[in-house]
Design a protein that fits this description.
The chain is α/β, with parallel strands linked by helices and 245 residues long. Helix content is 47%, strand content 9%. Strands 3-2-1-4-6-5 form a six-stranded mixed beta sheet, with helices on one face. Helix 1 (3-13) crosses helix 9 (175-184) and helix 10 (219-226) packs across helix 11.
Length: 245
């Protein structure tokens, strides 16, 4: 993050509208913690989940972070996970590269749905750790589906299926709120973002380095530019990826 960008977010952090958003998020976390005994924070190493983890640990420092390990984390994500402390590296149903091997690279939506399924083994996690609550960094601003989820669920809610208490404390935060909170609290964000500033804000998303989503919108071009070793490793097995760069 360059100095001008950082200073812009520091100034935004001083605005009353941001400070109100932070107070409201903290209140939501307190409400959620009153309902749970053994919660966790879903932590992708992305900017939104980083904020949620900090908000939760302000109130309950022992709450673990859970990272679903699909065997395709960016090196920068692994560095942040190592530095975070109290992180559960929970394996996905299969490594994401194995999922890609099971499907033809051109499967599109079918492949995307399968990667989503195998990379979020929620029921397996709950069964092993007996968690009764999860906090995560969903934000309504990101897309229509998330906006509807935030609207109808609310910031603190209970899943009917398993009784798990969910908390989305920053569901109404803006992009500026997120980065203002990170900068003003000097949170160690994942350095993948330093390679994404050239992208539109809606594309500055952090996930695994391998996958299906965004292939037609520059996913592999970004990987090739900034992580050529990873791209070459991937393209050696899936040469179709070179058609998208």
């Amino acid at each position: 993050m360059n100095k001008i960008t950082e200073d812009t977010f520091r100034l935004y952090a001083k605005l009353k509208i941001h400070q109100r958003a932070v107070r409201l998020a903290r209140h939501r976390v307190i409400q959620w913690l009153e309902k749970v005994k053994n919660p966790y924070v879903a932590f992708s190493t992305g900017k939104d989940s980083l904020c949620v983890l900090h908000l939760v640990r302000e109130q309950a420092s022992a709450v673990p972070a859970v990272y679903f390990d699909a065997g395709a984390a960016f090196p920068e994500s692994l560095e942040l996970l190592a530095a975070t402390g109290n992180v559960i590296m929970f394996p996905t149903l299969e490594p994401i590269l194995d999922t890609l091997r099971r499907f033809d690279f051109s499967c599109g939506d079918e492949l995307e749905n399968e990667t989503l399924r195998v990379c979020t083994p929620i029921q397996e996690l709950l069964s092993e750790y007996d968690f009764d609550g999860v906090a995560y960094g969903l934000r309504a601003e990101e897309n229509h589906g998330r906006a509807m989820h935030a609207k109808y669920r609310g910031p603190v809610f209970q899943y009917k299926r398993d009784g798990l208490w969910g908390c989305q404390p920053i569901c109404d935060w803006t992009y500026e709120d997120v980065w203002a909170f990170i900068v003003s609290n000097e949170l160690p964000y994942c350095k993948v973002y330093d390679k994404l500033w050239e992208l539109p804000r809606e594309d500055q998303r952090l996930s695994y380095w391998a996958g299906e989503t965004k292939r037609r919108w520059g996913r592999w071009a970004i990987l090739k530019k900034h992580w050529p070793e990873l791209f070459n490793r991937f393209a050696a097995e899936f040469p179709e990826a070179r058609c998208y760069v």
